[in-house]
Amino acid sequence: MSASEWRKAMNAGAGRTAWPRTAATPAPPRAAPWPGRGVASAATRDGARWLRWIGGRVRARHVLVLLAVLAYPLLAPPFFTFQIGAQALALGLIALSLTFLAGYGGMVSLAQMTVAGIAGYMYAIFATSGTNISLGWPWGLAVFLALAIATVCGILIGWFSVRTEGIYTIMITLAIGVAFFYLVQQNYSVFNGFQGFQSVKSPRVLGVELRDPVPFYYLALFWALAGYFAVKYLLRAPFGVALQGIRDNPRRMASLGFNVTAHRVAAYAVAGLIAAVGGILMVWYNGLVSPGSVGTSWLINILIIAVLGGMRHPIGPFIGAIVFVLLQNFAVDLVDRERFNLLIGAIFLIIVLFSPDGLLGWWAGGAARLRAGSARGRLGRRVETGKA
Amino acid sequence: MSRFWRWFWVVVLGVPVAAFTVWGLVDNAKLFLTTALNGLTLAALYFLVASGFTLVFGLMRNVNLAHGSLYLLGAYVGYVVGDKTGSWLLAVAAGFASAALFGLILQMTVFRFMQGQDLRQTLVTIALSIMLADVLLWIFGGEIYQFDPPRWIFGRTPLPLVQVYPTYRLVLLAISAAIGVLLWLFLNRTRVGMMIRAGVDDRAMLAAAGVNVQAVFAITFAIGAGLAGFAGVVGGTALSIAPGEDIRYQLASLVVVIVGGMGSVVGAAIGAALIGVAEQFGLAYAPTYSVVFTFVIMALVLAFRPQGLLGRRA
């Protein structure tokens, strides 16, 4: 983060307590990096600012990617739409919650898949499935309850783990995640033990079966985009900027009057909600939820996805998820299907050893090298490829 | 801790435990005592695994999430050696040596080049544990292996009240206690142990005092990994070896170390005793919720003493 951005961050954060007043008096542009938040009365000026803001930000590549993901199911066969596209989007959404926590909050939580799994389990318990534990309530209510309970669990997990710092977080969240796995495996009265919930029914809305490839793809796309833009927005909002400040130097932020614990727990709440949405999508996608869905391998797979893509940008987890899902489906052509873990472990190891910023780091390094190459000809080869 | 709080905790924790003990003894003394013994032997096993984990973490700040895989590696190598030579003691030695060697190689080739990058080291250990688990599954398949220990430690021992108890579990208890004492002597009475303790307190100062810190790191990592491999054979004899055990012991050592305090071997012993006993009592008296007991202990410790029972604030 550059010095000017930092100063902006501090100003925005310090003005946090004065938010209600900024609605009455025109906010200084610096304190309101997002339009539409300053003057409520001047709607037309707002609209113009919006347009200008969007025009200043949107590049050709953004439009291209958006068009590509929108047109994808029209061009790809159902298998690619559902198994690759939709699954990558849903997994990416769960990994996005980890990227938000780890990349911007400095808290590497391995329990994000657990939160997603709690959402899935709760949906299966409240809605309809092949097991008679399920209560058979309407799906809207079930989704609402599942999201609420999972988010509360996410907050509780966060509340536990922020009591310790840094590397301890990873241990505690891993312990919580594995403990939840053993709980659902042992417990038959609520979680139906080893079997879990089979044939969980996904809803039918306006005569459209949501689990059909194309509708499910667009559903997953909608929530992936919503999560992506929500995270992007939050990162520029005072809360997100304060969170990044806390990541970089918690002691200094505490001395500036920020409540470090509250910010961290709030980050867990946001991440919990995002993961919960991803969890509901996953349970619709799979049609089942079982101890295997929240086992250690999946806790770690989410970490792999997030690290693979890169934690420096919210697009990272989606890139990581695409690579992961492609490997998962086509590793059989490269190596034995049984040896998928070995392959993904090796790729993870290589990424961690040689590109701490993931594939995005390679991309940035490659771009920098290209630029340096064209600027300095073939002489200058010493390019910084990101922090070690 | 003030006098009031000490009494507060004694009352809040002690009274329910005492009440449960009295009820358990009156209700079914045999079940209660057998469960207690089972809990202690499990605790002994947890201590063996967790002491290496806590030692490595205390000195190097390296959260070795491949520690469970080292357990499994030692167990499998020990099994192969025991199968070929027919000697259980050689199997134990091989389990220790193979895991120690693997740990030494890891420290020399990977971790020494990323000193101070906690997160990156941890991610590397995760990647290694995935790969190691898969390679072991590849070689040994999904079958369950059992050791063939000497006759004299595999019978049953008559005990008062409990009637009979597997001798091997008592041997395991004794081995673990002996290892604990040896570890304590090593850390407190030898020169290298002194260096390790100094390194836990202040790494930079130790280096400034002219000690070859890398050598101390390598020794510590080898011992920690070796203890995991040792526990693999010893524990594999009491129970069995199968894929998935690595995760179980990884979780156990994580929880034990979180409860006991990072970097403290005595803390690991206390944590192991608590978790092992709680787990066995949970399994005996409330089978479908036994994990919850472990978790409640961890949550309580985190809530009131985040650094662990014997840990020091970082």
How would you characterize this protein structure?
The complex is a heterodimer of chains A (388) and B (314). Chain A contains 16 helices and two strands. With 388 residues, chain A is mainly alpha-helical. Chain A folds into two domains: 263 residues, ABC transporter involved in vitamin B12 uptake, BtuC (Orthogonal Bundle), CATH 1.10.3470; 34 residues. In chain A, strands 1-2 form a two-stranded antiparallel sheet. In chain A, strand 1 and strand 2 form a beta hairpin. Chain A starts with a helix and ends in a 12-residue tail after the last helix. The C terminus of chain A is likely disordered. Chain B is an all-alpha fold and 314 residues long. Chain B has a domain of 214 residues. In chain B, strands 1-2 form a two-stranded antiparallel ribbon. In chain B, strand 1 and strand 2 form a beta hairpin. In chain B, helix 1 crosses helix 5, helix 5 crosses helix 6 and helix 6 crosses helix 8. Chain B starts with a helix and ends in a 10-residue tail after the last helix. The mean pLDDT of chain B is 83. Chains A and B meet through helix 8, helix 13 and helix 15 of A and helix 4, helix 9 and helix 11 of B.
Q: Topology, pairings included?
A:
The complex is a heterodimer of chains A (388) and B (314).
Chain A lengths: L2 H12 L4 H4 L20 H15 L2 H16 L2 H28 L6 H15 L12 H23 L5 H20 L17 E2 L2 E2 L3 H24 L1 H11 L1 H6 L4 H27 L9 H14 L6 H19 L5 H15 L3 H19 L12
Antiparallel strand pairs in A: 1-2
Helix pairs in contact in A: 1-10, 4-9, 5-9, 5-12, 5-13, 5-14, 6-7, 6-12, 7-12, 9-10, 9-12, 10-12, 13-14
Chain B lengths: L2 H58 L6 H19 L2 H22 L8 H23 L15 E4 L3 E4 H23 L1 H11 L1 H6 L4 H26 L6 H16 L4 H21 L4 H15 L10
Helix pairs in contact in B: 1-5, 1-8, 1-9, 1-10, 2-3, 2-4, 2-8, 2-9, 3-8, 5-6, 6-8, 9-10, 10-11
